[in-house]
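re: ur question from earlier - yeah i can do the single chain one, its not a big deal. heres the input i used so u can compare w yours
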Amino acid sequence: MIVLPLINTAKLGFIRRIGLIRISKLRNSGTVKFTENNICISMNKNIIHYYFEDINRMTIHGNLYKEYLPTLLEPGVHSDKILQSGLTKVILEFEKNKIEINFLITTKREFQSLVSILKKWYLSKRFKIKEYDHTKSPMLLLNPYNSYEVLQVIKNELGVKLYK
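and the output i got, formated as tokens:
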């Protein structure tokens, strides 16, 4: 289980690039809790549960976490890898409607917790999961910078066909 702050993207504007962490604390839009069996949103003293039995498809748009900062000595590091916002969007598709959840991944620990839950979701095969980075390219386990070899190992482990 992991609890992350919700972000209201309609209210961010230009400041979005400057201080997402500070804004998320000041505006306190609520929280989203991810577990193995559901997603729970807490906003303004209201709690909404989305159970995976009802979900047909999940689409994730994200780019690592806020504190991600590789060393420049790593092979293949590009300038777009240096700054990540951590802003992540999950779209849950049900039979008749879609729900969009925007939240912030701040630390490596939060990122790793969410990835471990995401692995359990893939292995459960309850619904389809599609992941995209900020350039709308496919990715796997919230990391758009995995090498081809690493992607193949993860795909085999999870039983996933990434590009279909």
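The CA atoms of residues 87 and 104 lie 5 Å apart. not sure if urs matches, ping me
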